[in-house]
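Severity: low
Component: inverse-folding endpoint
Summary: output formatting inconsistent between runs
Steps to reproduce: submit the following structure tokens with default settings.
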């Protein structure tokens, strides 16, 4: 089985000491390609370095997460543009809006999100998108630029059916994480994933976050890894009523179509 993890934060400090082992374990589990997420200046550069060092395994994104939107300036824009112009960078982001925590002021988040949308249009690259508790403002900007951008994925989707339908209506891809494996807060998502068209579904771990709670035996630490992508796949299989092998093929084809990565 070949799988593509379309979002893993492998530049996170928790992977400093054993990244090679983490990658080997992922490959043994069937994960053949990993897109390393960039969320700020340092992680953007680290993600690119990983991608250039091991291009057969990694590619990357480049952008500024809404949490750090207040640190985005002209120099940051120039850096993201330069990194995103490289072949190994397959998407602009992580970018979007997060009005749940508001670690950056909402108005600044909106301005920085729009700069990323403009850059995606300029470079002809897809978007790696984040949205939490900001759907009305998020979808309004996305609609405004939809004809100018090639597409994108709403990563770590956890919203409601209306939001899902809005994204699908714009031909966006939907990224599903281990949130769907959570018996406490993932039950609504479990009922929605079957509504995602087979040609719009992507899977991701968002490592080191969102460790699937279905893993048995229970891991010794809460650090998520790309090898656990199979747990997301198996839960999706149960929720969607489609064989895991079929979902693996579909999600790989989708990753290749959107990002140009994956086996084959």
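Observed output (run 2 of 3):
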């Amino acid at each position: 089985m070949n799988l593509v993890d379309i979002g893993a934060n492998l530049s996170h400090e928790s992977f400093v000491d054993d990244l090679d082992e983490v990658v080997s374990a992922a490959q043994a589990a069937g994960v053949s390609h990993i897109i390393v997420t960039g969320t700020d200046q340092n992680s953007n550069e680290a993600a690119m370095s990983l991608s250039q060092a091991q291009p057969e395994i990694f590619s990357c994104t480049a952008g500024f997460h809404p949490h750090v939107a207040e640190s985005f300036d002209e120099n940051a824009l120039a850096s993201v543009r330069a990194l995103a112009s490289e072949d190994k960078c397959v998407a602009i982001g992580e970018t979007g809006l997060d009005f749940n925590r508001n670690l950056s002021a909402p108005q600044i988040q909106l301005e920085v999100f729009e700069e990323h949308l403009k850059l995606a249009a300029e470079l002809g690259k897809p978007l790696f998108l984040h949205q939490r508790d900001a759907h009305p403002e998020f979808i309004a900007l996305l609609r405004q630029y939809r004809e100018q951008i090639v597409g994108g994925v709403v990563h770590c989707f956890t919203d409601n059916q209306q939001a899902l339908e809005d994204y699908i209506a714009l031909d966006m891809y939907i990224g599903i994480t281990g949130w769907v494996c959570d018996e406490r807060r993932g039950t609504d998502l479990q009922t929605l994933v079957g509504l995602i068209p087979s040609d719009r579904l992507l899977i991701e771990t968002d490592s080191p976050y969102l460790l699937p709670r279905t893993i048995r035996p229970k891991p010794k630490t809460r650090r998520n890894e790309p090898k656990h992508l199979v747990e997301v796949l198996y839960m999706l299989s149960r929720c969607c009523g489609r064989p895991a092998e079929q979902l693996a093929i579909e999600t790989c084809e989708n990753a290749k179509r959107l990002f140009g990565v994956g086996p084959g």
